[in-house]
Specification:
8-stranded mixed β-sheet; about 15% strand; about 300 residues; disordered N terminus
Length: about 300
């Protein structure tokens, strides 16, 4: 009986910890990152935050998804930095990178990736992109084929297509105030929806998203999200996938709740991933069981093994 009571108390305390309200932050610079962060200046004068971990004969540049930041690649970088040089960036408007009235087109972000690579002296690299980052990765491979040696696309956006009316719906529904006024409970629900089974170690994503609401640059971050949504629907890649000649690994969670969009299309994630991969001449498709949209975080061991096998 004492054991049962103790176990109940432990579970109760864990549940309370999951519901705590994190301390507010003044700026996004207050976010604690798992790796040492550096910055470089883009040609337009904006500063980009990045981390540079590990070493190896191959370099992987990681691009996060919509509303996210480079710590989303924490488990991936920790698992791969022993064999590869791992560089992850905060896109303009996100994390510790500069924010403001910036474009959100996929080509703009592709140009940012190229500028980062040039300044760091990178050539023939592997680009890994998650969600919107996957669409950016494909756009980069098409715009700068001499830079991109291979692609790792993790639950990539762009494989799901939308008609004209659906694209306009995205533009209309995603507003700065709509993002800015998201409640704490909705934040928790939204983040949990990205996982098949929300791991405790992902709690920092929820805490950071709640705490950043008080940051002076939060509204600019919300603007970046709305611009990113417009960029994804305005710069589709599905019909361009046959032009991607680089070898590509496509990873996705079989329990992805975000792809396809449940309000507009519905169906199985696998169907959309298969259709996209089939259009690419050199794509390898790897489904991952018991994983949601953040498959690379939730099932990091399986994903890291798949990436290692692909790069070998």
């Amino acid at each position: 009986m004492k054991y049962v009571a103790g176990l109940f108390l432990l579970l109760f305390l864990q549940a309370c910890a999951m519901q705590r309200t994190p301390a507010p932050m003044q700026t996004f610079e207050d976010i604690k990152y798992p790796f040492e962060t550096s910055k470089l200046t883009l040609p337009d004068g904006n500063k980009i935050a990045y981390v540079d971990e590990g070493s190896g004969t191959q370099t992987i540049l990681f691009i996060h998804g919509l509303g996210s930041y480079l710590p989303a690649w924490k488990n991936t970088i920790e698992g791969l930095r022993g064999q590869y040089r791992c560089i992850a960036i905060d896109l303009p408007g996100y994390g510790k990178s500069d924010k403001g009235n910036l474009p959100g087109s996929m080509r703009y972000y592709a140009d940012v990736v190229k500028s980062v690579a040039d300044q760091l002296g990178l050539k023939k690299i592997v680009i890994a992109g998650h969600s919107m980052g996957g669409q950016i990765a494909v756009t980069t491979a098409l715009a700068y084929p001499e830079l991109v040696d291979k692609l790792v696309l993790v639950a990539p956006a762009g494989f799901e297509t939308f008609n004209k009316g659906q694209r306009q719906w995205f533009r209309d529904v995603m507003t700065v105030d709509g993002v800015r006024l998201t409640t704490v409970e909705q934040i928790r629900t939204n983040l949990a929806y990205n996982f098949y089974n929300l791991p405790h170690e992902a709690q920092f994503m929820i805490d950071d998203r709640i705490a950043m609401r008080s940051a002076s640059d939060f509204t600019a971050y919300c603007y970046a999200i709305t611009q990113g949504v417009k960029g994804m629907v305005d710069d589709p890649i599905f019909d361009l996938l046959p032009q991607v000649k680089q070898p590509a690994l496509v990873l996705f969670g079989e329990n992805d709740n975000l792809i396809p969009n449940r309000f507009l299309n519905g169906g199985r994630t696998a169907d959309y991933m298969e259709k996209g991969a089939e259009k690419m001449p050199n794509a390898t498709l790897v489904p991952v069981k018991k994983a949601g949209h953040f498959v690379m975080f939730e099932q990091s061991k399986k994903c890291n093994e798949a990436i290692q096998g692909f790069l070998r």
